[in-house]
Amino acid sequence: MIKNKMKNDFEAVIASERIAYEAPLAEYTTFKIGGPADVLAFPISVAEVAALVRIAAAYAMKITVLGNGSNILVRDKGIRGLVLKFGDEMAQIRRQGNVLIAGAGTGLGDLARFAAQEKMTGMEFSVGIPGSVGGAVFMNAGAYNGEISAVVESVTAVTLTGEIQKLSRPELKFSYRHSVFQESHAIICEVELGLADGQEEMILAQMGEFTEKRESKQPLEMPSAGSTFKRPEGHFAGTLIEAAGLKGLRYGGAEVSTKHAGFVVNAGGATAADVQALIKEVQHRVFEHAGVMLHPEVRIIGDE
């Protein structure tokens, strides 16, 4: 239960219309699944994020960040503590020379299209990834042989004690689907990306090719969290799942996509428990069939 003093403290630093209590999270995730957050806030600046974090720290509250709500599964009991949802105010993009500065809530597709308009190359790979810049940095997102780590110059973040820090590329400790933020849990607020000059026609053509591939192969018409499993070394997760005969396998409202076996989709009314059970079954059957253990790429968060 949220006490009045806590409400008053939060609403001293953020407008009351941008904070909610016991707020369902399903509408803020691409899976359309998720229980309630104790406190859900929509900050509009780095300074406001820092102020909210300091209050949460004073109450020993856990902090969770939602950008586009992709690549996550929020459990059915929801998330305890403070959830920060980055919306339009945290999704601004500006150019300084050959650097784009993007708020962490910026959609990757929006950033790729902005870069194309500015005749800047390096973000084409990201045009169809259904996530935000902050989430992409956190996970070192990639597609079509490109990764966000190749273009990130620095990141402005807020520590769990509410301090604002700027980290350079070496400090970000990027590796496959990994960044330093998975250990530090600092909150990514703004990202600087170094891009090269390019020709707009070639950039748009490359983006169009990637978009066509994605739309033809992936089940974008159904709610999902994107690719469900990490790519196992020497294999493709979707190929292994299809070879095990698991396309269309269902558990409750969760289904292994019939269009691309690497995706678990919400086929209607799925709960987080449905999705988790289906993931476990897929892992078990693929291991039995091919001797390869699949590991989720989707982050599973919230109370059991």
Total number of domains = 3
CATH topology of the largest domain: Uridine Diphospho-n-acetylenolpyruvylglucosamine Reductase, domain 3
User: Helix and strand succession?
Assistant: HEEHEEEEEHEHEEEEHEEHHEEEHE
At CATH level 2, the architecture of the largest domain is 2-Layer Sandwich
Distance between the termini: 18 Å
Structural class: alpha+beta
Give Rg in angstroms. Answer: 20 Å
Average pLDDT taken over every residue: 92
Helix content: 25-40%
How much beta, percentage-wise? 15-25%
What's the level 1 CATH class of the largest domain? Alpha Beta
Q: Can you put this structure into words, describing what you see?
A:
The chain is of the alpha+beta class. It has three domains: 4-88, Uridine Diphospho-n-acetylenolpyruvylglucosamine Reductase, domain 2, CATH 3.30.43; 91-217, Uridine Diphospho-n-acetylenolpyruvylglucosamine Reductase, domain 3; 237-301, Uridine Diphospho-n-acetylenolpyruvylglucosamine Reductase, domain 1 (Alpha-Beta Complex). 28% of the residues lie in helices and 24% in strands. It has eight helices and 18 strands. It has helices spanning 4-11, 46-58, 108-117, 133-139, 181-184, 200-217, 237-243, 272-290, and strands at 19-24, 36-41, 63-66, 72-74, 79-85, 93-96, 99-103, 120-121, 142-143, 146-147, 152-158, 164-168, 187-194, 196-197, 250-251, 254-256, 264-266, 299-301. The strands form six sheets. A five-stranded antiparallel beta sheet has the order 6-7-13-11-12. The longest helix has 19 residues, at 272-290. The mean pLDDT is 92.
